[in-house]
Write a structure and sequence with these properties.
This protein is α+β, with helices and mostly antiparallel strands. It is built from 6 helices and 12 strands. The strands form 2 sheets. A 6-stranded antiparallel β-sheet has the order 2-1-12-9-4-5. It has a 6-stranded antiparallel β-sheet with strand order 8-7-6-3-10-11.
């Protein structure tokens, strides 16, 4: 039995939110008036804007042009570290210039930040917890909203966590656990308004992406998916039992594969509601 087969055999059924990122035209203001979607992407892990997107884009271009220099995960991390150091020594010119970010209609304070990361899972860039394990805290908004405390994040709570980084050195310190990212907000919908002059670069689950000027980007929950995971939570135990019963029913011919998938999805939604 291979290591991969062993991992699958011993994995637990778990739940994960999947988020839709929609780009709207805002050339006439108010999202262009007709709310026409220009482009959509799906996010499962994280969505980085500004500094994070710049480094991811440079890494992607370097790897595409010189694939023989990227032979292992360790080498990839070394290259990523090199690009991060380069961004610290020669900082990009205001990567968040003209960008406005709101979490559940609360406008975030981006002063002093070069990058923002929207998190669905507590693991970034190979295992770093940018949000941190401490509970509590309040939104870092411009409207003075301080009456809502942050909840302990999970990957199935229908919420994303939004953090800010001051520069690439700060990002590196956060990734190794000797500093904390700026907790900006936590919510069910994130809105990013691009400048009227220039767009911005970003990355979605590690893949670079460029968003045009005069646009508005909305991040909202699309659906909940069932997947396999090494870690296990209280909710995973319940889902494991449901999955076993439904699998036995499908093998016995009592339900179809389509019915199996439908029942799992509906039961999962009831568990995390």
């Amino acid at each position: 039995m291979t290591a991969e087969t062993w991992d699958v055999y011993h994995a637990h059924t778990t739940i994960v939110d999947r988020w839709e990122i929609s780009v709207y035209d805002n050339s006439k203001g108010k999202y262009g008036g007709d709310r026409k979607i220009q482009e959509t992407k799906m996010m499962t892990n994280y969505f980085g804007i500004g500094l994070d997107g710049i480094i991811a884009t440079k890494f992607h271009k370097l790897r595409e042009g010189n694939p023989f220099y990227f032979g292992s995960r360790l080498i990839n991390k070394i290259w990523y570290g090199h690009l991060g150091t380069q961004a610290y020594l020669i900082p990009p010119t205001d990567p968040l210039a003209g960008i406005e970010i709101s979490v559940d209609n609360c406008l975030m304070d981006l002063k002093g930040l070069q990058g923002v990361v929207i998190l669905n899972i507590p693991s970034y860039g190979g295992g770093s917890d940018l949000w941190g394990v401490e509970s509590g805290g309040t939104p870092h908004g411009l409207d003075g909203r301080k009456n809502t405390e942050f909840k302990k994040p999970t990957h199935y709570d229908g919420l994303v966590e939004v953090v800010g980084v001051r520069d690439s050195l700060h990002m590196a310190q956060c990734q190794v656990g000797i500093a904390s990212c700026v907790r900006l907000g936590q919510g069910r919908r994130v809105t990013i308004k691009a400048s009227d002059r220039i767009g911005f670069v970003c990355q979605v689950d590690g893949e670079p992406w460029a968003v045009g000027k005069k646009t508005v980007v909305e991040v909202s929950l699309k659906k909940k998916a069932v997947m396999l995971s090494r870690s296990q939570t209280k909710e995973d135990n319940v889902v494991d039992k449901i999955e076993k019963v439904l699998m036995d029913a499908e093998i016995a011919g009592m339900i179809s594969t389509t019915q199996h998938k439908y029942l799992v999805r509906k039961m999962v939604e009831d568990i995390v509601r």
